[in-house]
Amino acid sequence: MPRARLRELGIATGTLPPGQWNAITDVPGVRVGYTTLIHDTPSIVRTGVTAIWPRGPELWTDAVFAGIHSFNGNGEMTGWAWIAEQGMLASPICITNTHSVGVVRDAICALAVRDKVSMPWLLPLVAETYDGWLSDATSFPVTTEHAIAALDGAVAGPIAEGNVGGGAGMICHEFKGGTGTASRVVQVAGETFTVGALVQANYGSRELLRIDGVPVGREIGTNLVPSQRDAGSIIVVLATDAPLLPIQCQRLARRATTGIAWVGGVGFNGSGDIFLAFAIGNHVRQGAAISTLRMLSPDSMNPLFQAAAEATEEAILNALTAAETMTGLHGRTAHALPLDTLTEVMRRYRPIAVS
Questions:
Q1: For this structure, is 271 an active site residue?
Q2: In order of start, what are the domains of the chain with their CATH numbers?
Q3: Among 197, 219, 255, 270, which residue's Cβ finds the most Cβ atoms within 10 Å?
Q4: Which of 118, 273, 299, 355 is catalytic?
Q5: Is there a contact between 183 and 5 (Cβ–Cβ < 8 Å)?
Q6: Is the backbone peptide bond immediately before 42 cis, with ω within 30 degrees of 0?
Q7: Does the annotation mark 70 as catalytic?
Q8: Which of 48, 15, 52 is nearest to 202 (CA)?
Q9: What is the pLDDT of residues 102-153, one digit of tens each?
């Protein structure tokens, strides 16, 4: 069976409707770009860079509010201290492999210099998960040019999933993992808002994997699909067009934990589970002494909390269903979740109908 998104298999999770693309790019202005590096010489490389622009180049001088939550901190997200301090994000976001955080962080600075951005200093946000099981991390294959290409190539609309960008060499619940995305649309106080999620999924044990409550990991055990590696990390980026303040973004970021738990993540000790949420519904322009802001009431946040959990859950599952089997370093193989077997398992537990 060809690789497909979860809903293309007739499997739908949650109760809220997705956006047009069922992607983080359903949030207006959000763009995503990739550089994917897959080669066997001079070293075996399965890695890349994922770039996310919360809005266009005006982001450099028109910040978005943001918040971060660390579910388990065995990982890295640069720039987090300044976001925790002031609650604003004024540069693009990148996700890559563990050993390439520094060069990608510096590439964002180089991009700002190239584009003559009027900021005296930068503290870019770059996150990571480790792909050294499939890729030769010690070869340091990611360059400044690769990161800038991902940033320059970012687009709106439907985006690729699976073995792309920073997710190229990742493993999730002992199947091939990688990059996934999803979105949800909610009605709050007579207005329509979207919450989108993008994940780099590289975490979890096989036996804990669940899809819509079905114990898929136990049904498709290592006797059916071999596995040689378990727990790792996950980065979640949440975006919304709702008018949120920084503390509300931080609260939204925490709800990614619920989506991960629904799939079967528990935040193992060796896992870097770090989540960022940003909201484009307000504008904080450089040089403005006073900004006029809007915010949702605390009670009005509940639909967004549900949307964040559901979008995170489906983004992880889309990463699993899109990713293809990959052989990498030392001949190791990360096997894709078999979609024909998945649909058979799901059908035994509940009816499947294409949504």
A1: yes
A2: 6-336 (3.60.70.12)
A3: 197
A4: 273
A5: no
A6: yes
A7: no
A8: 48
A9: 999 999 999 999 999 988 889 999 999 999 999 999 999 999 999 999 999 9
